[in-house]
Amino acid sequence: MRTRTLAGAMLLCATTLTAQQDAVTIATRASQTYRSLTSIRASFEQVIEDRMLGPQRSRGELAQSGNAYLAMRFTDPAGDAIVLDGTHAWLYAPSTTPGQVIRSPIPGDPVYGPNVLARILDRPAERYAISLLRTDVLDGAPVQVLEFLPNTADPLFRRAVIWFDRESRLPRRLELDEMTGVRRILTLSRIRANAAVPRREFTFEVPPGVRVVDR
Fold it and tell me: What distance in Å separates the CA atoms of residue 163 and residue 45, rounded to the nearest whole number?
């Protein structure tokens, strides 16, 4: 009986180790794919789950080029925008705070700036404990669902879960448990990798009468 118990424990350890290795392999390949892109376009839907305010839903179009250029332009609520122009991050939310736009510098290493996917997929095996939660289907496409737990204290989130397309290796869905207690869920669709993105899309033009608030 003892021999069987020991054998079972060894098998469980071997299975767990294999699963961890598989998760790291998936994350590493996804990181290589994501970071090799010249650009990406996608439609997005976002849900912010806040226990105090309830769920907040939004949608729009996203464009990215490298780590320091990102544009999220919302169609609902219409007119809201988050833009990284290579030097500054612009947060414009006339739906909640009309008459102002917040401008803040992008950190010297943009990987650790507002582009959360780029942040997570920068050397993920070194910086996170990674687990393969399950295989699944998202919008008809097979995906692999990975959990990322920071190895050290992270100022933004305590846990991230990403759905990776099994064929393209691109992220399709991101779920963040933020340090504020908020859960943020971002789902991407109609993803176009390496599509042409004019640089003007990463320029935020301050509307007339809107005040710039530097942070």
Answer: 14
The matching CATH number, chosen from 2.50.20.10, 2.60.40.3760, 1.10.260.40, 1.25.40.10, for 23-214 is: 2.50.20.10
Using 50, 70 and 90 to split pLDDT, how confident is the model at 12?
very low
* 36-75 residue pLDDT tens: 999 999 999 999 998 888 889 999 999 998 778 999 999 9
- The pLDDT-based confidence of 106 (bands split at 50, 70, 90) is confident
Q: Pinpoint the alpha helices (H) of the chain.
A: 2-36, 116-120, 124-127
- DSSP helix/strand/coil, 111: helix
Domain ranges of the chain: 23-214
Instruction: Report pTM.
Output: 0.82
Task: Give the number of other Cβ atoms within 10 Å of residue 166's Cβ.
Answer: 15
Q: In the numeric block, which tokens belong to residue 99?
A: 């008459």
Closest CA to 150 of 171, 123, 125, 129: 129
**All residues at 6 or more sequence positions from 93 whose CB lies less than 8 Å from its CB, including other chains:** 77, 80
Q: Which two tokens stand for residue 71?
A: 């544009």
